């Protein structure tokens, strides 16, 4: 294999792995959802008719309408082929297409997830840099004791605490709803704190490892200032394994949105997921799961392609695997 063909082969291999992950997410979710007890059609009829059970003929007609009267393997094949075109079926609860429900809810979730990601990077990076700075050891020990605490705090508890303080006590920010910039602040902070704690913990460990490397003394001996060594050299190398956290962080944001949007009464992916799980609405749940898997795969693909930018040696290593497989976090 020549050097010129390595990037193409690498990208194709990563794309194949991405397709495999999406297929696995769809298949596993399909199997688990169909193994769960309960019936979405019965749930719909019960809620629509005050708990009155429908007659068998009506029940059979509704199941046939949603394709639930077919054998499970046939249902799987039909849903998989339809999913390839972006069609995850129709919601049993609302009658809308599952794809439309998820896509419509996505902007509201992104409105808190994107600021939360940026805030988590700022908080986590700041804590890690200050906590591992060679001077002020007592301050570093204090700062590095915060990430484990941040990870252990339940998001719903953090959200309720922020509502109590900033909404009820101080009256500065709205406690719920999704209108205006102010309504985004508390949910974003709630999402950002545990994610920022993860970033800080991993980046701090990576920074400490890099500080013990011989090149640090060499650069310092050449006259570089302590700040330049810490930020210009140590941080650049420490960011390589920290970058591999992107996929995990994104997954935490999506998972945390379910709780956060419920606490703050916001419409979004989290609310759609919670309602779909309660109603056992399989098409909607599958659409959410595949969307989450697609975001995870996309972020990790971008990370793997950016990895050689931070470590140019990777571009010249034909057998270099994914970034998260090489990094020792």
TrEMBL record:
Q: What is this organism's lineage?
A: Bacteria, Bacillati, Actinomycetota, Actinomycetes, Pseudonocardiales
UniProt family annotation:
Belongs to the binding-protein-dependent transport system permease family.
- Spell out the protein name for this chain: Peptide/nickel transport system permease protein
Q: Which domain of life is it from?
A: Bacteria
Cited InterPro entries: BPD_transp_1_N, MetI-like, MetI-like_sf
Look up and give the organism this protein is from.
Prauserella marina
Q: Which GO terms describe its biological process?
A: transmembrane transport
Q: Where in the cell is it found?
A: Cell membrane
Transmembrane portions of the chain: 15-36, 110-130, 142-164, 184-204, 234-255, 284-307
Keywords from UniProt, A to Z, are: Cell membrane, Membrane, Transmembrane, Transmembrane helix, Transport
Membrane topology is: Multi-pass membrane protein
Q: Where is the ABC transmembrane type-1 domain?
A: 106-307
Q: Which GO terms describe its cellular component?
A: plasma membrane
Q: Name one Pfam family in it.
A: BPD_transp_1_N
């Amino acid at each position: 294999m020549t050097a010129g063909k390595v990037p193409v082969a690498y990208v194709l291999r990563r794309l194949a792995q991405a397709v495999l992950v999406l297929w696995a997410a769809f298949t596993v979710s399909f199997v688990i959802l169909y193994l769960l007890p309960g019936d979405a059609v019965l749930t719909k009829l019960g809620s629509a008719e005050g708990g009155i059970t429908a007659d068998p003929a009506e029940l059979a007609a509704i199941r046939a309408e949603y394709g639930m009267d077919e054998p499970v393997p046939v249902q799987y094949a039909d849903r998989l082929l339809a999913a390839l075109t972006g069609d995850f079926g129709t919601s049993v609860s609302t009658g809308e297409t599952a794809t439309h429900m998820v896509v419509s809810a996505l902007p509201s979730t992104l409105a808190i997830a994107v600021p939360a990601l940026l805030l988590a990077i700022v908080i986590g990076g700041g804590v890690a840099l200050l906590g591992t700075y060679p001077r002020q050891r007592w301050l570093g020990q204090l700062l590095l004791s915060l990430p484990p605490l941040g990870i252990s705090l339940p998001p719903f508890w953090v959200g309720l605490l922020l509502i109590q303080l900033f909404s009820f006590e101080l009256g500065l920010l709205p406690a719920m709803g999704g209108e205006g910039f102010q309504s985004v602040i508390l949910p974003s902070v709630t999402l950002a704190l545990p994610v920022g704690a993860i970033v800080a913990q991993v980046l701090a460990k990576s920074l400490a490892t890099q500080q013990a490397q011989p090149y640090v003394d060499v650069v310092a001996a050449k006259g570089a200032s302590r700040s330049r060594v810490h930020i210009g050299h140590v941080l650049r190398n420490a960011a390589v394994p920290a970058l591999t956290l992107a996929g995990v962080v994104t997954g935490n944001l999506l998972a945390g949105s379910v709780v956060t949007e419920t606490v703050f009464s916001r419409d979004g992916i989290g609310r759609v997921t919670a309602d779909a799980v309660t109603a056992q609405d399989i098409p909607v749940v599958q659409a959410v799961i595949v969307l989450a898997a697609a975001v995870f795969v996309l972020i990790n693909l971008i990370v793997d392609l950016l990895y050689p930018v931070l470590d140019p040696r990777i571009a010249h290593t034909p057998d270099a695997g994914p970034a998260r497989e090489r990094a020792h976090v």
